[in-house]
Amino acid sequence: LPISALDSLSEAAKSVDDACGGLITRLVKSGDMSIETGQSLLLVEPTGLNANRLLLVATGKQDLNEQGASKFANAIGTALSRLQIKSADVVVDGISVSDRDSAWIAKTTARAIAAASYRFNEFKTSGKKQPGLKKVNLVLPERKGAAAIQRAAQTGAAIASGVNTARHLGDLPGNVCTPAYLAKQGRALARNHADISCTVVSEKEMRTLGMHSLLSVSAGSAQPAKLGVLNYQGGDKNQKPTVLVGKGVTFDSGGISLKPGAGMDEMKYDMCGAASVLGVFAALGELKPAINVVGVIPTVENMPGSRATKPGDIVKSLSGQTIEILNTDAEGRLILFDALTYAERFNPETVIDIATLTGACVIALGNHASGLFSNSDALADKLIDAGASADDRAWRLPIWPEYDQQLKSNFADMANIGGRNAGSVTAACFLARFTKDYRWAHLDIAGTAWNSGSNKGATGRPVPLLMEYLLSTAGN
Ligand code: BES
Ligand code: MN
Ligand code: ZN
């Protein structure tokens, strides 16, 4: 039950307050129930109510903005996920968000609640499965508009299942989640959804095609590279697809340019771009919007084996351009380069790549926003709006030709690194060299795809942003 300041309690809150003999009023007055956004209080066996538990969650003192509303919705999700309950009624009344309607509120609430159910304990021998929340009813103040709100809530829940798919793949350890494993996940999606198909390009086929930039990254690994291609056809056959390209480095040791040891375990998350594309397809399979989407998922393991690529090696990419590999730890761009060239064959309307590409992006933007780069202002604006709506924000950085200068090589068409300055920008400039022929955006999710520290775990970002964007192209 949402709770606000006493002078602006919703009709629903007032009637619960009456039924409980003014308990809510007393709790707010005494300060036991704080009305700061997201604060909550659980009452057990409340007298006067036909419910085992009553969870009060504060909306805050004023109208909410999008971040405030997400904070409020996440608080409901977190509080519910801690309870040993199978079902809950969530009152959607007394919440107002600037510039957003009740369908948006329902979508945000449903997404937050469904995402909060995520657990990752399959590798803990004592981690027995808890039953968990199965069913949530949204309770509305009036019948009017209920159909649209229900649809919005279903959209939110489907986005959350895409988020949780991406989180699970991200959290899996590198010895389980290999390129072959991710390929298997793609095939499973195709098996479970009639409008999704999947093909996997093998190393042998990639060699024939000439994807030597991609292959140079997996050269030092015992795990063969795979290029997964997913196709979701929900729209007209002639409608050009949006192509999503996801970086899938299932472990990034740095290769011969080996990373330092501290925190290296987190490089199992270097496939979170790939995981977000798989998450988007899981959500598309559930929602079946009238759009066409292709997923291109280059997956490799970056290891310093005896056949590994060495600093100074020169390779020829699928596009024909040659690359001097000065640092084998700048591998994401090498696999994306060939994948972005490969994407051309789908005659795309738009191409968006998603990658944990640079540590420099974490320095620039921290954990709050993904880095956004694009050759189209209109596309960049749409993605920024989608992120703002979905509590999954992105912030744009430039890809001016001045920065591209830093990629000059004495021996090949370009080097794969551009020095310390503006590391995220030069990485994006590198990709931009292969994306001149279509509308393109690059999302650097190095700071947003997972949390570190005691909270370590994948976030499932930017699945919400991508889904919001894709659904907006369908006019949903
Ligand atoms: N996967 C890393 C980027 C990364 C680092 C993401 C830390 C999240 C946290 C990427 O492959 C990488 O190693 N990038 C290098 C590029 C450099 C060698 C030009 C980096 O950021 O240090
Ligand atoms: Mn690297
Ligand atoms: Zn990497």
Description:
There is one protein chain. This protein is α/β, with parallel strands linked by helices. The protein is 37% helix and 19% strand. The strands form five sheets. Strands 6, 7, 8, 9, 10, 13, 14, 15 and 17 form a nine-stranded mixed beta sheet that branches. It has a three-stranded mixed beta sheet with strand order 1-3-2, covered by helices on one side. Helix 12 (377-389) links the parallel strand 14 and strand 15. Helix 5 (146-171) runs antiparallel to helix 9. It is elongated and about 80 Å long. It starts with a strand and ends with a helix. The relative contact order is 0.11. The model has no long low-confidence stretch (mean pLDDT 97). It binds ligand BES, manganese (II) ion and zinc ion (ZN). Manganese (II) ion binds at residues 252, 254, 329, 331. Ligand BES binds at residues 252, 270, 327, 329-332, 356-360, 362, 417, 423, 446.
Number of strands: 19
- The low-confidence parts are none
Kindly estimate the percentage of residues that lie in beta strands according to DSSP: 15-25%
Rounded radius of gyration (Å) = 24 Å
- Which class of secondary structure composition applies to the elements? alpha/beta
Mean pLDDT: 97
Give the % helix: 25-40%
C-alpha end-to-end distance? 29 Å
The ligands found in this model are: ligand BES, manganese (II) ion, zinc ion
Major sheet size, sense and barrel closure? 9 strands, mixed
Number of helices: 15
* CA-based shape: elongated
